[in-house]
Amino acid sequence: MTSSSDFRVTLLGTGVPTPRPDRFGPSTLVEVGNQRLLIDAGRGAAIRLYQVGVPMGSIDALLLTHYHSDHTSGIPDVWLTGWLQSHYGTRTKPLRVLGPVGAKELMSNLQKAYAADIKIRIRMRSSRQRAPRWRLRNSTPMARSTRGMASR
Predict the structure, then answer these.
(1) Is residue 150 domain-resident?
(2) Residues 6, 40, 60, 70: which is the catalytic one?
(3) Nearby residues of 44 by Cβ (< 8 Å), 6 or more positions away
């Protein structure tokens, strides 16, 4: 991109809940200047980020639109792989997560589900390595506007 006001939208996946090799799960990358926002993380989001040359560790925030599994099944891969010390990882700050009411519970439960993996990876690294972290940004307008709405 040539200017900090330019933006690019990349459809990483536009699939449906059923696994299809020709369409990855819902995920959209929005780049503005040097900021990167991932909207949803469906099946294969991490693979598609790799294919388009975007390191997972460079994602500034993840915006979850709703909690259907086809929009969220790629979260662990984007979050945890982005933390690895390789060219596609190297996250140095917590992944910001924005979403409707329930985002904190979802991320807390993912952290519990992957606790053993996180522990092993920390042990394999230098003592300076910190655990992969996430930080919730539950936006009040979003939380209010999505409460009681049916997902499409």
Answers:
(1) no
(2) 70
(3) 12, 13, 24, 25, 27, 74
